[in-house]
TrEMBL record:
<dbReference type="InterPro" id="IPR028082">
    <property type="entry name" value="Peripla_BP_I"/>
</dbReference>
<dbReference type="Pfam" id="PF04392">
    <property type="entry name" value="ABC_sub_bind"/>
</dbReference>
<dbReference type="InterPro" id="IPR047776">
    <property type="entry name" value="ABC_SBP_TrpX-like"/>
</dbReference>
<dbReference type="InterPro" id="IPR007487">
    <property type="entry name" value="ABC_transpt-TYRBP-like"/>
</dbReference>
<protein>
    <submittedName>
        <fullName>ABC transporter substrate-binding protein</fullName>
    </submittedName>
</protein>
Amino acid sequence: MKNKRLIAVLAAIVVIIAGTLAYQSVSRGSKNQGTKTVKVGVLQYVTHEALDEIYRGIKDGLKKEGYSGDKIKIEFLNAEGDQSKVQTMSQTLVSHKNQLLIGIATPAAQGLASATKDIPIVMGAVTDPVGAKLVKDLKNPGGNITGVSDKTPIADQIDLIKELTPDVKTVGLLYSSSEDNSKSQVEEFKKLAEKKGYKVETYAVPSTNEIATTMNVLLSKVDAVWTPLDNTIASAFPTVVAAAKDANKPIYPSVDTMVSEGGLASVVVDQYDLGVATGKMAAKILKGEKAGDIPVQVFDEGTPVINKTVAQELGVTIPADLAKKAKSVN
Ligand code: TRP
């Protein structure tokens, strides 16, 4: 009788201990899953306001999809416009076992693409992903790369030049010879502008060092300057602005940040929105979708933006309907 009771007590104790252990392991398991941290590597090509804005958007896009705090660890590197740093930093991000990589601007995305064919890569604001040989087909990228493309509405930019400065006949295009993103924009601008009767002269600089001297030559030959979404020009834009101001000639850039820095006007895609879209796309991949299955998202609808201070300095009058729909900076 006594023995039976003892066995029952022992059995009860065993059941309680086993139950507690089982409960602990289950709760530990789910807790682990809840705090699982994803590792994301971000490579920015160079510092300029537009790319900084895109990176801010990327972090917010990831956050909106649940990747913030201890859910994500971002390793952020900036190559400061140095091509050899692009390469070493791309390899660093791969060797640190980041599970997803984001390249901000074309040269950064190209560096990452040559460093890995396995880890998924999201392009942040790459103007011409096909021309830059990053994907074969925007709708169906395949491989380990997808992302967001900022295709500025160049035809609208040319219409704006006509509307604001009808006397302009010759336009000088200033861009960097080393950026694939600029090549395709320059070709498109030239084609469309010549169709509208403009004379177009192209000036490619090898690096920021040649901008000042190139501007001197260019300004003696053209009535206005146009720059594409070019990282080299963007990172040294104050030099361009100073030269154009001395010559009293307008600059038409391709992004609002460069209009506020002293450009006259443009038709632009919102940089922060590009970043948010990039971050959200990265989140889709972190949740299990394959990069190659996600079509490249193209932003090609622009908003006009005008620098009123520069317009006044140049004696440019802004037509009333344009003033109404344009965003004004400064
Ligand atoms: N689209 C550019 C590229 O492909 C990057 C970029 C985004 C950019 N916004 C910009 C460059 C503004 C100059 C200015 O590399």
